[in-house]
Structure formats: structure tokens, C-alpha cells
Amino acid sequence: MALALGVDTGGTYTDAVLVRDETEVIASAKSLTTRADLAIGVGKAISAVLTQAQVSPEQISMASLSTTLATNALVEGQGGRVALVYIGFREGDLEKHGLRDALKGDPALVVAGGHTHAGTEARPLDVQAVEAFLDSNSGISGFAVAGQFATRNPAHELEVARIITDRTGAPVTCSHHLSAKLNGPKRAVTAVLNARLIGMIDRLIGRAQDQLVTLGISAPMMVVRGDGALMSAEQARDRPIETILSGPAASIVGARWLTGAENALVSDIGGTTTDVALIRDGKPAIDPEGARVGGFRTMVEAVAMRTHGLGGDSQVHVVTEGLGGGIFLGPRRVLPVSLIASEAPDEVHTALDAQLRAPTVGEHDTRFARLVPGVHAEGLGARETALVDRLGQKVLPLSDLLKTRMETGALTRLMDRGIVQVSGVTPSDASHVLGRLDAWDAEAARKALELVARKRIGTGDMLAATPDLLAQMIVDQLTEQTSLTLLETAFSEEAEDFGVLAPDLARHVLTRKGLAGHRGLVALDAALNVDVIGLGASAPSYYPAVGERLRCRMILPEHTGVANAIGAVVGRLTLRRAGTVTAPSEGRYRVHLEDGPQDFSDSDEAMALLESILRAEAEGEVRGAGAEDIRVIVDRDIRTARIEAQEVFVEAMITVEASGRPRVASD
């Protein structure tokens, strides 16, 4: 009997499951995710599932981790302070290609150097400029290095990485290690995001491994990639960007395993995000343009997933303009008031009671702040430092924390860095008020919703007459926004082009009237013509109404709340390596390798060499990660041009995929 342990660390909960012989879930458990030290939540979830199954730690033959931590961090704009060395490009490219947005004020150096399309040096690398840049910037958690045509010749990227390592010891991400494709600016964005995540994911994996050892589990640890395949923990530490959409990808693998669905939309609601993807003919589609998360298009191979900042812990925003008023949710995750009150009851209830006694609702009512313990607050400005000192180890109402309007921006920056957490009213609080949840402090949730319900809209009336009515408004809004998310995905995947963008089609008046079954002089009917698999701990609470709204079959499988953790243990270890052969001149075929280009007079000989190198790398790494029964698939994308009635070789992209099941021992 082989027992595999799957763990999923989400924004709110950490889930653990035990799967026997890849066929049966024998136990599952949940624990609150402890952001201050993720190992605490991981340890509690694992201990609970071992106790429930009545098995000893020594019986575990494999452990695998999926996480939404990287996805959530990019959606919420969090992560460490990074620096970019941009080789061979122009200063204006930082703005033009979205790198300024990805850097979020972190430093960048545009330096002379880079290569040509053929892999020859365009200009010498300005080493002195790189060294001066390193000397003038401290407190960097990770560096990103991106060179012009580095996939044709990575020499300058490798040299800059060597200099950074020698002078700082900080981790370095080279863009050519993340993708073999052209598009330097897009590779640079991907490298910046990878560098930003390195410290965060390294801490998660390290602490998770420590916790396994503490619990007596000696099994190797795997991590789920964004395409649903598994990678070793060491590979994930080097390339954490590949774990974006890890949790959602695991959910699709888990959904397929739980239901056997051939064609369905999968909608996974967590605390921070709702992730939607399509299973077609039994397989999730891979996004050909690269994963898009947090507004950034990356070069990471991942499932074609639409990630929206909508979850059980999404912030509730009140619309006070207009006569009708209303609310909308997200995209930022906040601490539910019911949760922070369960952890600091005296401070929160005292402040809420004072706010309820006030004659008018204050701007910062229901909002509390606390430091995230264990997070390094480096490179802060004066205002940020003042807020950190003022908070100390306390939970403070924002009205007490913020002394001036200028400090609001400083607080936002601290939240973006993951140094401070702020509370607010969320759908989780609404569910406590309605009696659908009882995990935290329901009385605090009721007080918070009463305060928000008192806010005035354009007519002068209160937003809602009672906390219960507001709670239902919040849940209804979650239903509406989830339905729109599903409709957008369905329209975007339609084979037929309607000539209108998917978001506009989802919100079109005819779509809305059709879903409502309009009957007038015109009869309108619309429905989602595919099953929806609802995943997530709160899916049974929220998703039946979504199925009714979209007039479709809503599948809520057993173990829906831990589908991510299930997906983490039923996938395959997979590794892809890709490379390029070009034709710089007639009769010459150039193989672009890590140690520089090599030329051949025969295209087949060039492609054979590249394929053998890629095969050796892919097979070696996947075997070293713990795979057995390895299967190799080779894809040759050969591009030719017709010149004077002859087919002429232009370029070939060779991709080698090696995959196998993680090696397990049975007792």
C-alpha cells in the first residue's frame, strides 16, 4: 500500500489529504493558513490528517505541495524588493513594455551589451556600470537579469549573474532559464516576478520540509507547477514563478480525478481568488501566450486559467454614488473582521462598540491593522517605518494608526510588501451573519456589517436596513461576479467569433435578459451549456445559486474543499526543455546552447545534437527529481519559407518533455 500526502497552502486555509494507491482518499483535514509562519498551519493540517487516518508518519511514501501563495502575491502586488539589470535595451523600454509596473518602484539598470538574433555580440557588456549599480543599491532580496536575444546567446546574462553572486550573494534569475522563446521584454517581466517570489516561496518550501521532518515524514517533497505537473522542491526554489497558478492547476487535476469529467468548466473559489478553467476532452488547455496573473503576461507555461480577485475574503466596497447605491467585491484580500476578532477579541470588540456608539459612520470603521510577524521590513521609507513602529505587536483600528492622509499611501505600500495586514468586511463575514459559517467570531461580523449597513447612499437612505439584509446583498454580489467570471471564460473559449469581446458579451443586456428568461414580445433564453465543477471549501455555500443563475448543472464533488491537495498527489513529474536552431546564412545551421552557438552544415545534424542535449537534460533532471517509468515526447516545430519554388529552412524550435510518476515505496 502506497500512501501519498497532498498539502495545499491557500490564502485562508491549508488543506491536507492522504491518497492510497492513487485511487482513494482516506482522510482530509484543514487548518488556518498561518502567514507569519506557514509551517504552523502545514503542521496542524498534516497532524490532523494523520490522526484521522490513524497512520504513522513512516508510512508516507510521497509528499506534494500546491500553493496559491505565488498567485496571490502577484494578484495583491506583494513580494520582496528586487532589482533588474536590463542588458542591451533602451531606457524607454522599461515604460513601454510594463516593466516599470512590474518593478513597483524597485531599482533597474539599463546597461550596454546584448546580442543579435544570430547570437553574436551586439555591444560589449558594461561591467563597470553593473558594479556601480550593485554598490549603490542595498536591501535587495533578489535580482532579475534580462539580456537582448539572451536565448540566442546567454553569455552576458551569465556574466552579470556571476558578478551579482560574487558581490552580493543574493539569488539571481536569468531570463533565458525561464523560457527559450524570443521576446526579451516579456522574459524580463517574468524574471522580475520570479525574483520577487524567490524569498517567499523559498521560506514556504523550507519551512514545509522542516515540518515534515519534525513530524517524522522522510518522504521526498514535490511541488505542483502551473501546468498541473509536479516538480521537485529544489526546482521550485530556483524557479518559483513556475508555481504561479500551482493551486488552481492542482484543482483542475483534482477535479478531473474526482469527477472523471470530459468537458466542464472548473471554478475554484478560495479566500483571495476565483480561478476558472476549461476541461476539454479530459484535458486542461495550456495557455499558448503564457500565464497571466496580477495584470502581467508571463512566459510561464500554465493552464489556460482566468484568475480573478474574488474570494471569500475579498474586500467589500460600498458604492455611495447614485440613487441606488450598492456594493462590489475585490480584488484585494483583507482579513475578515470575524477572523481578526477571534485572534484579538478585546481590541476589536472595544473598537467596534465605540464605532457603533458614534453618531455617524467613520471612514475607517471596521478596519484594523496588524504586522505580519516574521516578515523582514527592509528598505522602508520614513512614513512606512513610523507606521511599523506605531503598530508594534498590537492590533490597531486604522483611525488610531493613521495620523495624516499622507500615511494612507504608506500603509498601502506596506500591504503590498506583505508587511501589514488590514481587516475589512468580506463575504466570509456575511456568511457568519447568515449562519452559513461558524469558524470565527460571528458577533464581531454582525457588528461590522451593522456599521457598513449604516452608510448613506445617494438618496440619503442607509445602504441596508439590517446586517442580515446587507449580508444577503454581499452573497448575492458574489453570485453575480462569479457568474460573470464563468460567462467570460465560456465566451472566450467559444469556437464561433461573435465579433464582441468576451467581457462585453458576458455583461450584455441580451445575455442578462436571456438568463432571466425574458418573456415579452420577444422571448429570450440563455444558459451555460456546459457543466460547472465547483471547488473550494465555500463552494457548497455559494455555488448552488451560481448554477441557478446560469441555468446549468453545478457539480459539487465529495472532497471539493480539498481538491487542490488531491491534485497535488495524483499528477506526474514533468520537465520540459526547449532550444532553437537557426539559419544565419545559406548552408549554415546554428544551434543555440547555454555555452554559446555551434554551427553545422547539415540541418538534421544540428537538430539531432540539440535534441540529444535537451533529452539528456530533461531526462536527467526529472529522474533526479524522483521520477520513474519515464516517458519522453519530442516536438519539432520546423519553420520554412518558399523561395523560388524551394522550401528553405528558417528556424526550428525543439521541445523535449520527460515525465514519470514520483518514485514511491510501498509497505
Question: Can you walk through the features of this model?
Answer:
- By secondary structure, this protein is of the alpha/beta class.
- The strands form 7 sheets. A 6-stranded mixed β-sheet has the order 3-2-1-4-9-10, with helices on both faces. Strands 11, 12, 13, 16, 23 and 24 form a 6-stranded mixed β-sheet that branches.
- Helix 15 packs across helix 16 (442-453), helix 15 crosses helix 17 (467-493) and helix 17 (467-493) crosses helix 20.
- The chain is globular.
- The model has no long low-confidence stretch (mean pLDDT 89).
Write the layout of secondary structure elements.
Elements: E1 3-9, E2 13-20, E3 24-32, H1 38-53, E4 60-67, H2 69-75, E5 82-87, H3 92-96, H4 99-103, E6 108-111, H5 127-136, E7 142-147, H6 155-168, E8 172-174, H7 184-214, E9 221-224, E10 230-232, H8 233-238, H9 246-259, E11 264-269, E12 274-280, E13 283-284, E14 292-293, E15 296-297, E16 305-308, E17 314-319, E18 326-333, E19 335-336, H10 337-343, H11 345-357, E20 368-371, H12 382-391, E21 396-397, H13 398-401, H14 406-416, E22 420-424, H15 427-433, H16 442-453, H17 467-493, H18 502-507, H19 509-515, E23 532-535, H20 539-550, E24 554-555, H21 563-570, E25 573-585, E26 588-593, E27 596-600, H22 603-624, E28 627-643, E29 646-662
Parallel strand pairs: 1-4, 4-9, 5-6, 5-7, 7-8, 11-23, 19-22, 23-24
Antiparallel strand pairs: 1-2, 2-3, 9-10, 11-12, 12-13, 12-16, 14-15, 17-18, 20-21, 20-22, 25-26, 25-29, 26-27, 28-29
Helix pairs in contact: 1-7, 2-7, 5-6, 9-21, 10-11, 11-16, 15-16, 15-17, 16-17, 17-20
